[in-house]
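Hi F.,

I've been meaning to write this up properly since the lab meeting, where we talked about keeping a consistent format for the predictions we share between groups. The idea is simple: the sequence comes first, exactly as it goes in, then the structure tokens exactly as they come out, then a line or two of notes. No screenshots and no reformatting. I'm using this chain as the first example so we have something concrete to point to.
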Amino acid sequence: MNRIYTQIPQGLAWVNKYSVPKFVCVLGFTETALIPGISAAGLTPEDRKYTAHADAEFLYYGASHKAKYPLPPLTAGASPVIISRAVVEELKLPVHIFNAGLIEAPTNINTIDLGGTPALCLSSGKAMKLETVYHLFEQGLKWGEKLAGDCQLPKDYLILSECVVGGTTTALAILLGLGIKAAGKVNSSHPVCNHEQKWAVVQKGLEKIKHFCDPLELVAAVGDPMQVVVAGMTIAASRSCGVMLAGGTQMLAVYTLCRACALFHNLEWQSHQIVVGTTRWVAEDLTGATVELASLVDDIPLIATQLNLSKSRYKQLRAYEQGFVKEGVGAGAACIAANLYQNWQQDQLLNAIEAQMEKLGNSNQVINT
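Output, unedited:
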């Protein structure tokens, strides 16, 4: 059910060592998401303002809860949080949700507010105040140590997931800024990645950076609040437990940021404790080059669930096989975890995911038709 695409010996060692997950989701917002057409995670810019709120609420409560923030309509497909929630609910995994910087704090779920702010569009070259980025990085380090402290058994590990609409574009900016030749290689929630649009936005932002030494200055210029929090969490947690960075392009950017921050700030970390976990829709996306990008980032195992939704009775799920959505809210990592933890196979995953879809339909929430 899982395939290791890069750094295979290191990846095998990791999956043979770790099997008991704790699920973490870090929420953030960037005004980059409001650019028309930049993301398919919500039909309109207004929808995209609250995608993270809706996903967090669904991850926390599931489909039976009357939603304050219903899942937004998409161009096609269904939110990846349905996949994540299916695993979390069935396996009764502990979940911690952090607000790194949203346009308004979720008031109806138990989130941990990190005192961040939403980012301006990265094209401004002034996405966040530097003091905010430093604060969020310190919060990430603190919570990474704390969460790792809850991993008492040798097989325990953290899944660090995200929800940031427009996050693959900020990821491209961070990767390029840190010297990774990522142009044309990132992913998107669109079936065909909008590389030219992303490149144009990123170039505007990077052109406004005259010089930076500290990688956190790059985040302040063109990043988003999730990136710096998860980087801090990863560095601190890796010292004592396993970490699965849950996502594709975004988490390859976070890993690159971890390495740069650890070097610049002289921070101890254990890179061999870290893997990136995603879906095969990301790993094998013909309109991106995730495996090549992971190889350019270097020394990080890229693992992907081999979940296939082509035989689902829901066309919203079958849309994943046409390239829509692909990943988000740790969907790929959740499926990897179900296999490592309880040896779930294709049928068990599909049944659990379709059960969430059925509950969602019964709750009268809108599902794309």
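Notes:
The beta strands are 2-4, 20-28, 95-101, 111-113, 156-163, 242-246, 274-279, 302-305.
Residues 130-149 form the longest helix (20 residues).

If this format works for you, I'll send the rest the same way.

G.
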